[in-house]
Amino acid sequence: MRWIKYAWSALVVALLAAQLVLAQPAPPAPQARFVVVLDAAHGGEDTGGRLANGQFEKSFTLAMSVRLRSLLAARGIQVVTTRDSDAAVDPVKRAEIANHAQAQACLSLHASESGSGIYLFTSSLTPAATTRFPAWKTAQAASVTRSLKLAGVLNSALLQAGMSVTLGRTSLPALDSMTCPVVAVEIAPEQNANHQTTAGLDDKDYQARVAAALAATLVEWRTEVRQP
Amino acid sequence: MIPRHQKILFALLLVASLAMGAALWHLRQRAHQRLLAGQDSAPTSAPAVAPAEQATLLMANDSDGSILPQLHSLPLPADAGARARAVLGKLLDLYAAPDAAHPVPGGASSVLQVFLLPAPELAGAVPATGKPRIADSRNVVILSRESRANSPGAASQNAPQTGPLLAVVNLTGSFAASHPSGIETEMLTVLSICGTLRANLPRVTQVRFLVDGQQRATLAGHADLTRTYLTGDAVPSNEAHP
In angstroms, how far is CA A7 from the centroid of its own chain? Predict the structure, then answer.
């Protein structure tokens, strides 16, 4: 019977095709996007502190933000910044930008002539459970634990880069309203044990080392975030 | 010819005029004596100062980010509000000294007033954290718990006799304007003020800040001055005065 032959052939072809399809490896699951928010503190009329070389804190933080954004972009990390120019951005707007970005890490960049080394501050809010509608001024409470973890990773990386690091908790208006893991990074001149400045804030090499250490940390943080 | 009744009237008026002149002279003399007596009652020596007492000042240090208690002897008034102003004045005087470890210009005159009010309930406020700062091993752990509270309301310098107190510290605008900018340095100032108040006035559990009588967003661009700072963990218990 001819039609039985055709049917049999069609069945064999279908089985072979099915086998070929099943033998192909499954396409990789799409990885969750990794976004970093860089918040250059101050801007516009809010100059921040005046640094030793006469530069304002707002200019230093913007320059550091631009440098860090380049380093992160080169590593394939998507970066959102709260400002790209000398513009005034109020704390509410900064937090809005960070929250809309749904970032996995946020860094608020500051600079000061007082103290030495790098200061890492996390919100002083008490960790709280995630709620569907968190209060604006305490939105960070649900992410404080992750912020502390991020600060720990930053601490390790900066110490490995040979910098002195001080960890602390603080209360900054923008920080407390962000829902991402956020750390305020305050960069101060590098000093030796005798409190003599070995690298000022205008030292390009010092800036580059800090930026490189921060970028390396965020790459490491991306790996941690993506681990199941 | 002058009638008799006119003579009598003239004599009476003359006597009355002389009597009134004498009375006026007497009153003038009395007023003069009173003025002289007033000058005599003016103080010729300085009023007696309050007796010197030991006060614990929590001194910040920029080099290691620590806040350490130090004992100082200074005259302290009996009134709690004046006492609080005196200890904060001393603290800021030390910060204004040329060799200060936490240099902040301004000095004692930077504290305009310290108002002491009954501490408002913090029900519904954000839970506070008492986590210590993590710094090097020399650090004394200190970070006040912070939270939010309602507006302090009308201020009074007469502190209530019992119960926890809210201290409202009114600083000068020049102090805020000249304060070094930075998260670390501003937080050290705020926390050392909170800790010093707690160490010398144990009933002060909350502290709020005003600048020239107005609420201000930050001290010098960083430390949040819009909220209430809790002093509960600011001072080790053995450092606090009874």
Answer: 61
